[in-house]
Input
Amino acid sequence: MLRSWVNRKLQMNRQSIIIDCDPGQDDAVNLLLAMASPDELDLLGITTVAGNVPLNLCQRNARLMCDIAGREDMPVYAGCVRPMVRKLITAEYVHGKTGIDGVEIVEPRTPLQDEHAVDFIIDTLLERDPGTITLVPTGPLTNVALAMIKEPTIVERIQQIVLMGGAMREGGNYSPSAEFNIMVDPHAAHVVFDCGRPITAMGLDVTHTVLSTQARIARLRDIGNDAATATANMLDFYQRYDQLKYGTDGGPLHDPCTVAWLLQPELFEGKDCNVAVEISSELTMGNTAVDFWDVTDRPANAHWIHTADADGFYQLLMERLHHYG
Ligand code: RIB
Ligand code: CA
Output
């Protein structure tokens, strides 16, 4: 009860957030959703990390979304080009060579900031009042983990972390037991899940229930503005891989679950659990061991989201995309 009251109080005030991402079409839609919600969200900056595609494409793609959103003033930062320990793995087979196949690639008008993403995260947390900034990672957790390691005093200053990553009942989407974001940088994920700050985790268990069906994409396209058309075109391309793999109508719209939770947490259900990350076994590397039934003595370190109102989620996304005129 207390947590839901706290969540409601948190959500009632305008929230200062930093989105750390690896666009990727779903990251891109998450950025458009966040920038379409200025009354509730103060997006202080966008940091990018290598993941779906190499870093140079991720930062370009984030800047392109700022162009589409009419937010050429949005500070965008490039971060880590590779994971902390392992070699970089990317996912062009899902997202296409550009990372956001489905939209025309042009040189963005939105500039790239000189400061490194890790330093932006550190500086912003040190400059702002403690407990006032939410981190929203939707890619590998390399930038966030390195910020915590480089400047440990920022950890206590983080209000909360709302991330997309991990899986429990769904198994893995990269390996039989690991979700992509965690698999790319399991060591970074271990650091973040071990940091002690409030974490809300959107794993595959919930993101696989919010499918971008043909009907939903058609309704998005009917909105008719640039942002909605770009969203529909990106999802048209992006959903084909998972649609073929899982035999579903549409693919999971992973990353926008994070901003949607910030906007309307009542669309989701979760449970406080311990989440631990496998960093030893090569067979299960990157697995998120979610102690959903409290069978260990490991303390809960995350609010594990397992259920979503998919219709409500897409209703929210459609409503917000009308923001762009
Ligand atoms: O496993 C899904 C996650 O990996 C999403 O964040 C997608 O963008 C990719 O980064
Ligand atoms: Ca992502």
Notes: The chain is about 40% helix and 15% strand. The domain at 16-322 is CATH 3.90.245.10 (Inosine-uridine Nucleoside N-ribohydrolase; Chain A).
